[in-house]
Amino acid sequence: MDPFCEHFGVCGGCKWQHLPYEEQLRFKQQQVVDALTRIGHVTPREVRPILGSEQTTHYRNKLEFTFSNRRWLTAEEIDSERNDTDMNALGFHIPGMFDKVLDIRRCHLQDDVSNRIRLAVKKYCLTHDGYPFFDLKNNAGFVRTLMIRTSSAGGVMVVMAFYYEDRARREALLDFIAAEVPEITSLMYVINEKCNDTLTDQDIRLYRGVDHLIERMEDLQFKVGPKSFYQTNSQQAYRLYSVVREFAELSGCETVYDLYTGTGTIANFVARRSRRVIGIEYVPEAIDDARVNAGLNGIENAVFYAGDMKDMLTESFIEAHGRPDVVITDPPRTGMHNDVTDTILRAAPERIVYVSCNPATQARDIARMADQYEIVRIQPVDMFPHTHHVENVALLRKKCTEKC
C-alpha cells in the first residue's frame, strides 16, 4: 500500500507504513511467539490475539525534535548542485547519523498541534537574527531541541532547549510560542551546555503555565512532568495496564511487588485491588513522581523505593517488606539481571506478570524461570503502529510441587 507520509523511506520512524495494518499485527504476534519458542523454548498454554491500536496515526503523546545546521539532503537536492540550499532543519536524526537531521514538514505521529508548534518555531528562528541552529559536530549554535508532550486530558507541554543563555532572545521566542499557540498549558525551557541532548540531569525551568500535564485512567490521575516516563501511546497504555491487572488476578489480599515501577503507573493502577504494593525503580525522580501520584489519588497502600534493582531486591528487603504473592515486572529492553531473576525465584510468588518491550530478552528471562514457573498465557499489545516494536504481557504461575 502507498505510504501516507512524505518522509517515508528516509525518516527512521514509521518504517512499516507501506504494510496493511493487519499484516503488521500478524508479524508482531509471530515475533512474540517465535521469541518464546525459539529463544525461551517455552510454549504458552494460551496465546491471545494481539491488541491493535485504534489510532494508527497521531497516537504519540511525546516527540522530541532536533535543530541542526546540517540538514539531510535528498538525492535530488544533491544532484541539482544548487549552492543556495537552506541547510537548517528541525526534525529527526537520520538513523545511524548523529549529526544529520531530516527536516520534518509534517509528522503523523502526534496531534496536529505538534506540527503547528514545530513549524512556527522553525519559521521564527529562521526569520529573526540571533537564532543559529545547532551544529551537532562542533557544539555551536543557540537553539538545540524542542520537546512537545500532549495529554489525553487536553494539556500541551513545550520544552525549548538552548545551548547558552541569551535572555532577550530566549524570552522573545518563548513569548512568540505562547502567543502563537494558546493551547499550550506548560511552557518550559532549559539551558543545556552539555555535548549531548539528554535533559534528565538538567534544570528545566517553567516559563509560563504549570510544570506538568495530567493523564487520566479510569478514576485515577497521573502527574506527568517534563522528565517523567509515561507510555507514549496513552490509549494503548490503558489497555496494557488493564491486561496486567487482569493477569495479576488480585483479590485484595495480595502483597504485590512492582519492579521497574517507573513513575508508579502500574503500581497505582493495581493498588486498590491489592493489600499492599511495593514499587522499586532506579531513577529517584521517577520515584518522587510515583509518590506524588499515589498522594494525588489517595492511595495509601503503595510504597516506593529508589535504587538499582539487583541491589534493592534482596533477601533482607523481602524479609522487611514481606514475601510477594504477585510480582509485576516491566524491565528495560535489556531485561532482568540474573541476580534479580534469582531473587524472584527464591521469593517464590504465586504469580509473575512480566511486561516487556523486547520479546527476545523476555523469552530469555522466562527460560531462566521455566523450572519453577509455567507460562500460562500471553497478550501482545501494539503500542507503536507502523514500527516493528511490540509489547507483550506474560502470566507465569508457580508450578505445583510434589507437596501439592
TrEMBL record:
Chain sites annotated for binding S-adenosyl-L-methionine: 231, 260, 281, 330
Entry GO MF terms: rRNA (uridine-C5-)-methyltransferase activity
Keyword rRNA-binding on entry: no
SUPFAM superfamilies the record matches: S-adenosyl-L-methionine-dependent methyltransferases
Alphabetized PROSITE patterns for the sequence: SAM_MT_RNA_M5U, TRMA_1, TRMA_2
UniProt xrefs under Pfam families: tRNA_U5-meth_tr
CDD domains with a match to the protein in the record: AdoMet_MTases
Entry annotation: catalytic residues: 357 (nucleophile), 357
GO biological process terms, semicolon-separated: rRNA base methylation
Alphabetic keyword roster: Methyltransferase, S-adenosyl-L-methionine, Transferase
Family: Belongs to the class I-like SAM-binding methyltransferase superfamily. RNA M5U methyltransferase family.
Protein name: RNA methyltransferase
Organism expressing this protein natively: Tannerella sp. oral taxon BU063 isolate Cell 6/7/9
High-level lineage: Bacteria, Pseudomonadati, Bacteroidota, Bacteroidia, Bacteroidales
